[in-house]
Design goal:
Blueprint lengths: L6 H8 L7 H13 L4 H12 L14 H4 L11 H18 L4 H11 L11 H18 L15 H7 L11 H51 L9 H4 L1 H15 L9 H11 L8 E3 H7 L2 H10 L10 H9 L8 H8 L7 E3 H23 L1
Antiparallel strand pairs: 1-2
Helix pairs in contact: 1-5, 2-5, 3-5, 3-6, 5-6, 5-7, 6-7, 6-17, 11-12, 11-13, 11-17, 12-17, 13-15, 14-15, 15-16
Length: about 375
């Protein structure tokens, strides 16, 4: 069985050695895993791959079986590093296939690789594939086309007379008129069926175009007004530290298509500047941005978001959640550090945090979509 051309390299770079002939069995197991993966499995594989301190407790119970079924010697324990390699390969394949869970896999990988995690990934190629996929999917979803012309057939009295001449009615027998009448009715039905298919396609195309334009207009009006929908303040009143979390959340709520428009980065850059950031390179920490947000806003975010499924894949949203578990502005830092390996006090370019916030919200949307399928 053929496998991905870089599959052996993924093993080699992780420092895992396999006997001859095992790669084919492992790839067969991966194909079985991704054939029809559940949403929770995709998220669990992302956690297993991106977390440097992953333990056996993070290995999904159903993940080992496809490999042990194809190789009796597949270890039942003490092979965490290989399982992380396999998790990355499975996510890579899910993304490349472009199927129903590709959005989910790509967003889970990009969100989960935030901050220092990116530099210690077992294989950076998986993250690159996820990034390229999100750009391409966004471009494809926002493409519009001119509506196709719908041709409705016209059956006039003259045309029907030509097809059904008076001569065939000159007898009392119905036999002579049966065949031409049947042919004419079949042609009429075929013409209207074709026209209906064209009209249906045109309506679908028009509906898609309306949604694309609606998303663009909503985001542009929001940016033009420079006014927060959620906390009813101007961007400048919010301040850039809080804006790094609040504004991308609002843009995400205005986004119709997951994973969002490709120009969202430009929108966020402009919005952050309107909030007072000197540039998109202005640095801020997760702690500073989280504490700058009003407690009422953070409570509202926690109330409407179910973080249970994504957990450590969304370190920014996790920070919002943990900040509400204590009273003081710094009391929640130890709580967060115990739960997450992303430093809460490390400073990042403000745009990086804003994009992460946006993607985390998109990841939650992707989870919702996957659960509806």
């Amino acid at each position: 069985m053929s496998f991905h051309p870089h599959f052996a390299d993924w093993y080699r770079l992780a420092g895992v050695t396999l006997l001859d002939g095992i790669l084919e069995k492992r790839w067969a197991g991966i194909k079985a895993v991704v054939e029809k993966p559940a949403a929770h499995l995709v998220l669990d594989l992302a956690k297993l791959f991106v977390l440097q301190n992953a333990t056996d407790a993070l290995v999904p119970p159903e993940f080992r079986a496809p490999f042990s079924d194809r190789d009796d010697s597949f270890p039942s324990r003490d092979n965490l590093l290989e399982l992380r390699v396999l998790a990355g390969a499975a996510l890579h394949l899910i993304i490349e296939q472009g199927g129903p869970h590709s959005n989910l896999a790509a967003l889970a990988l990009t969100c989960g690789s935030f901050g220092p995690r990116e530099s210690v990934l077992l294989e950076a190629e998986h993250l690159e594939v996820a990034e390229r996929f999100l750009v391409k999917r966004s471009r494809d979803l926002h493409q519009t086309a001119n509506l196709a012309n719908t041709k409705v057939p016209h059956f006039t009295k003259e045309k029907l007379t030509e097809r059904l001449p008076l001569s065939i009615f000159a007898t009392n027998q119905t036999g002579p008129i049966h065949e031409p009448l049947l042919s004419q009715l079949a042609e009429i039905a075929s013409g209207f069926s074709t026209a209906l298919d064209q009209a249906t396609a045109a309506i679908t195309q028009l509906s898609h175009t309306v949604n694309v334009r609606g998303e663009e207009i909503d985001v542009l009006w929001w940016l033009q007004n420079a006014f927060s929908r959620d906390i009813q303040k101007s961007f400048s009143e919010i301040g850039y530290r809080a804006a790094a979390l609040i504004l991308p959340m609002e843009v995400a709520d205005l986004t119709f298509f997951v994973p969002g428009p490709i120009n969202v980065v430009a929108v966020l850059v402009h919005a952050l500047q309107l909030s007072g950031a000197s540039s998109s390179a202005e640095e801020v920490s997760l702690a500073e941005s989280t504490n700058a947000c009003a407690k009422e806003w953070r409570e509202a975010v926690r109330a409407r978001q179910d973080f249970g499924a994504v957990g450590l894949l969304t370190p920014v949203l996790l920070g919002i959640q943990k900040s509400l578990e204590t009273d003081g502005q710094e009391d929640w830092f130890p709580v967060y550090r115990k739960a997450c390996d992303v430093p809460v006090d490390k400073r990042y370019p403000i745009l990086k945090i804003a994009i992460q916030m946006y993607r985390e919200r998109m990841l939650l949307r992707a989870v919702e979509e996957a659960q509806r399928e």
